[in-house]
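Researcher: I'd like a structural prediction for the single chain below. Treat it as a standalone chain; there are no partners to consider.
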Amino acid sequence: MVYGHSDPGRPHIVEPVTLKILVAGGFGAGKTTLVGSVSEIKPLRTEELLTEAGRPVDDIAGVESKTTTTVAMDFGRITLREDLVLYLFGTPGQDRFWFLWDELATGALGAVVLADTRRLGDCFAAIDYFERRDIAFTVAVNCFEGADRYPEDAVRDALDLDPGIPVVLCDARERESVKHVLISVVEHAMLASTAGR
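Model: Treating it as a single chain, here is the predicted structure.
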């Protein structure tokens, strides 16, 4: 609850409108980093160490330095104004945790599909998931140091995206960059909602 002060002597309770955005993508794409870089609260993380037992199912090619993985979700919050709060839910990237996605997707305004050009194919499942459920999404290409950089149109072609789906380049570690991604998701979701009426 947020407290407002329309009458200086009497505070009143303002029930904020809450918006929910999912952050999805392949294993090691930077979802946990993205949520943490923009959240105003210490993000809830459900990270566990990668183990030898997981080696056969967790393909770390291209992300060899990764030592932890999300096993349930990441959660962050951004208060946009007194009566408007944005919740971010980061999904786990491995196939074996996809059963959680349906719960996390319930009531979502839209989604970010975080892509890593070193492992671009890893985000196809997330794109397919949101397309099948008619959830508006933006593809955000996380520009890792040392990774090849491609123009947005080249990424769009490689992922076979419809022309209306936004593709943006970002750095998941940088708050301002992530804010640009989230604005893109909200704008795209609003346009999709208007077009659907």
